[in-house]
Fold:
Amino acid sequence: MSVTTTNYYDRKGILGTLGRDGLLQIILIANTILMLAPIVIMVFSAFKTTPQIFQSPFGIPDFTQVQNFIKIWSETNFLRYLLNSFVVTGASMVLILTLGTMAAYAIGRYAFTGANFILMFFLAGLTLPLKLAIIPLFMLMRDLSILNNQLSLIFVYTAMGLPSTVFIMTGFIRTLPNELEDAARMDGASEARIMWSIMLPLVRPAMVIAGIQNIVPIWNDFFFPLVFIQNDSLKTLPQGLTTFMGEYTTDWGVLFSGLTLSAAPIIIIYIVLSRQFIAGMTSGAIK
Amino acid sequence: MPQFRMTGRGLWITALIVPPLCFVALFIVYPIISAFAYAFFDWQGLKRLDFVGLENFHTVLFVEPYRSWTLNAFKNNIIVFFALMVLQNGLGFILAYALWRELPGARFHRIAVFLPVVLSTIIVAYLFKLFYHPLFGLVNISLKSIGLSEWAQPWLGQSGTALWSIIAAQAWHMVGFPTLVFLAGMQRIPSEILDAVRMETESEWVKITKIVWPLVAPSATIVFTLLFVGAFNWFELPYIMGGLDGSPFGSTDVLGLYFYRTAFGNVSSGQQDFGLGSALAVLIFIFIAAIAAVITTRLRAREIQL
Structure:
C-alpha cells in the first residue's frame, strides 16, 4: 500500500470516526432523555396539585408542597402495602438463599450418584412459565388453606427463585478450591462446620448476584397476589397500587405521588447499587 | 472429592438437598403436571367433574365464540412479539453498540437505560396510562403544544392505536435488558479480532453485519428466546392499560388475559371455567415450548465458538 493511500484512509478514518461517534452520542443522549423523562415528570407531578399538572405538565414544582404525600400517608393503606411487600420479599429471599445455597453446596461440593440429575431437575424449573400453572397452584394453595395468606406468595416465590439460585451458586461453588476444606477435614471438623465457617463466607459474591436476580421480580410481582390475595390488609405494593389508583382516579397529584412513592425504594437502591443490579439481573442471560 | 461412603455424609447430603427439592417439586413440577391433567376434565367452579378427553381443547380451538377469541388473542401476541423484536431487541442492539464505544458519559447512559427495567410493570402501566389520557395526558398535550393537534387522539381508547400504545410502553420499560445483554456480548469480543477488522475495512456497516452481529449470536439467542416467552406470557401491561377484556373491542386482548379471564372469570361475567382455562394453558405452554426449542436450536447453530 502506498503512502498516499494510507494517508487518505487515515484522514477519512478520523473524520468518519468523529461523525460516527457524534451520531452514536446523539442516539445515546436522545435515548437517555427518553428513558428519564417519564420518571422525572412522574416525580415532578407528585409535588403538584391536579390543576397545576394540567396547566404546566413539564414545569418544575415547588418541592416543599407535600400535601399529596401526606394524603397518601394518612388516607390510604399505602404503608401497610409497603410493609407487606417487605415481609413477603424478605421472607422469600431468606428462604431462597438458604435453600438455594444448601442444594448448590450439596451438588457442587460432594460427588454423589444422582447429583447431575438433581441439578437438571432444578434447571428444568428455570424455563417453565409458572403463570400457566396458576389454576393448579390456586387449588394447591386452597388445599393447604393458605389462600389469602402471604405464605402462599412466599412459597411460590421461593420455588420460582430456587432454580436460578441453584444454577448460579452451583457454578460458583464448584470453582472454589479444595485445600481449605481438606485441611479442616483433616483437623476433624464436621461437614456442617466446614460448610458454615469455611465455605459460606466464600460464596457471598454469588449470593449477592443470585439475590438481586430474584429480589427485583419478587418485589415487583403482581400476578400471584392478584390470584392468591383478596384481603386488602394483606396486599403487596404493586397489587395495592391497583386498589389505590382505582380510588383516586381524578386526583392526579395523588396518583403521581402514589406512583412516585412506590417506585422510590427500588429506584434509590438501584442508583446506589447499579453495577450489582445490572450484573445480577442480566446474569441469567449472560454466559 | 469424597465418595458417597459414610452414612453420616449421606444423611448430611440428604438433609441439604431434600428441603429445596420439595419446594420445587410441590410448587413448580406438581402444578405444571396437574395443569395438563386438569385440561381433560369438566369443571364446575372448583369442583372436578367427569373426564371429557379432548373436548376442552376442541372447544377453545373450534367452537365459537371461543375460536375467534383464541385466534384474536393469538394474532395480537404475534404482533406484540414482532413489534418488540424491532422496538426492544433491535433498538437494544443499536444502543448496545453505541454504549460499547465507551464515549464520554457511557456509564451514565448505561445506568439510565436500565433504570426503567427495575421498575414494577404496574407502575409503568399506570404511568403510561396517565400519559396517554385523551384530555390531560402528556402525549396529547405535547402534540398540541408543537402544533400537531390533529395527531392528538385517545390512544388507549380506539382499536387502531391501543395495542401499539401498550407495546410502546413495554418497549420503554424493557429496552435496557437486551441493551445490556448485547453490550456484555460485545465486550467479550477479543480485541485482536477487532484490530484485525480495523485493518481490513473502514465500513461501519461491514463491521457490524460481518463481525459484531455474528459474534454476539449467543446473546441474541438468549434475548430472542426470552422475548418470545415473555411476549406470549404478556399480562400485566395489557391488564392495567387495556383491562381484563382487552378493550376496546378485544384489540388489546392477548393469550395471558384471555387465559386468566377464562379460568377465573371477569367482573362483568362471574363465570369461571377451569377446564377451558387449563386447556388454553396447555396449548400456550406447548406452543411456547415448541417454538422456543426451535428458536434456540436454530440460533445456536449460527453461534461461533471463539
Q: What stands out?
A: The first helix of chain B runs from residue 7 to 38. The CA atoms of residues 235 and 256 of chain B lie 5 Å apart. Chain B has two domains: 7-57, 69-301. The longest strand of chain B covers residues 47-51.
